[in-house]
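Q: Two folds, back to back.
A: First:
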Amino acid sequence: MNKATLFFRIAFLVLTLASCSENDTGKKKEMTRNATNLVVVGFSQVGAESDWRRANTMSMKETFTEEKGYGLLFRDAQQKQSNQIVAIREFIQKKVDYIVLAPVTEQGWDEVLRDAKAAGIPVIVVDRMIQTSDDELYTCWVGSDFRKEGDTAVLWMEKTFRDKETLTIAHMQGSLGSSAQIGRTEGLHAGASRNAGWKIVLSDTGDFTQVRGKEVMERFLSEFREIDVLYCENDNMAFGAMQAMENAHIQYGSNGGVTIISFDATHAGLEATRAGKISFNVECNPLHGPRVEKIIRQMLNGETPNKISYVDEIAFDAATITQEAIDRRGY
């Protein structure tokens, strides 16, 4: 046997062994999947800063259960994007089947999403939007049209205050850089730009929390007590603002004084609306678990989900809201 023949035989043997090894690895992975029979979902959540967020988490946990054929890895980021990036890398390392991301902020995701894409793991973004250099880095997004929510609130303001020449507005924003904050803020600014008498005299972030909402409202009142409207970008901040106004003996709601506009329409928020404390409350539906499951089922069936899916939402006026509407709330 000459050297050339020996070389080719050795090369063939090495390739055969490598192929067998790859096949065995694939079989082991498939056997493991068949043994557990679970679709593994890694979910990175923003945190637990509000009633809305807790309802969103519960919706995911109630949907992705072992009884329904899922294994759920849940990670709470505690409001930090760095924690979410760590969680996504963990999901990649553990080879989950799908990654679900509720992002803290819109930017800064390209690198970790490239890693997920390289690993062949679809990423479903929920609630807040993200901005990437390549839209193919994530599979799809499902959530609310936050700019439309802001526009809905502004249209109500224009109708309600159409006979008022000037309107003094305090603006309590959500977490800066989040999609909800950006969209709802854009809606208010667009309204102020086309209504010459509207003046946004105060603006600060309450980070979507009740504690910060109270702190920000206390500062607002120390600087400017003659406020017509509090445009508050979620219910929890509105609750904090109410506490601050009560402590300062400032009237609000149906009793006169400050008109409160809020967002989310949680059960507690609608109770406050029914009581006349919040005058107008725009829904932001957090029950995304079934929506995400529908997307996953589509992909498991070889279908391509819509890149963008908006949730249908409504708004509630204190003058017309019914107890029946509150009782129907799923959160």
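A: Second:
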Amino acid sequence: MTAFPIEKIRAEFPILKEKIRNKPLVYLDNAATCQKPQAVIDSISHLYSHEYANVHRGVHTLSVKATDRYEGAREKIKNFINAKSTKEIIFVKGTTEAINLIAQTFAKANITKGDEILITAMEHHSNIVPWQMFCAETGAVLKVAPINLQGELIYDQFEKLISDKTRLISVVHMSNALGTINPVKKIIAAAKAKNIPVLLDGAQAIPHMTVDVQALDCDFYAFSGHKLYAPSGIGVLYGKQALLEAMPPYQGGGDMIRKVTFEETEYNTLPYKFEAGTPSIADVVGLGAAVDYLTEIGMDNVAAYEAELLDYATKKAEQIEGLRIIGQTKEKGAILSFVLDKIHPHDIGTMLDSLGIAIRAGHHCAMPVMDFFEVPATARASFAMYNTKEEIDVLMSGIEQLIEVFG
């Protein structure tokens, strides 16, 4: 590929010019949330300054303009993930709400006592807790496929857990705690052989790689805007049209209805059946702008550049005595989780912050992963397309200083 335009990209993110504790900001907490380019900020500002009104319901000029921007964003997202139709793009608050929506609609309509739901041991809490709640309510059974010490799914064990009782497989595409990229095509193919639908948690994957839902042939795909350089409070649930049409509504209220009397309600068509009430209009517009921005750069280019960053960071980290990387599979996204001998991850995070370096320290909403590796928490540096090798050098220098301080 041609040289990645890193300086141009960095210049388009205003917050990267900030200083933290009189040090240049080194922002390496991208798995928690990404910073926003000026194009996204401007799109929201423009909407509120010139085109804001409620969508779908008004015949006046501002409502028409706002609706065009809102539905235009849906079209952009359809193209970004290669869905067949905008009817398959449901706006939600984020990945968590998308998974809960599936649990409260698809699962309630299709899964009963004794049926099984299969997940993996590397899931985020948002792909564990909704299923625990559902199983407690219905008597369904939650099955968990194990991982190994490299942080990889033990695929043959996973396949053995697929049974005649399995009614849904819900799997993370890329682990937020380990960076592991699961063999989702293989998983989906195994599921299809037994006519089992698959939900992919794409919150971490979508900012780092090209996602083509038709090529994957997944039934549902969930992701959050704030990890895709868009605003927080907005996300997407993709679902195959036939499945969405068969599912009952998630919430009742305005916009998800076609006709209401006191005797009965006729629900709206897709995608509006699942979008009750006034939506996050500006956040949807911001998500559309983020998709435009990433499309111009090219997700394959982003993936290649971030792979370079991860390789560079991993080699540097391996040279530091007393540092242990948690999650070392070859199929991995731009996440470096690690622990240091005799230094708690919270101390690592606090000390690095004093140097202007933002990382995450904790269990990363993946407590079962921490339990498996027998650590209370990890420090996690997660990279984005605006990060540089020079910033990685600053991180590694900071870690070495920290080790010196703690003796």
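Q: And?
A: Residues 27 and 358 are 5 Å apart (CA to CA).
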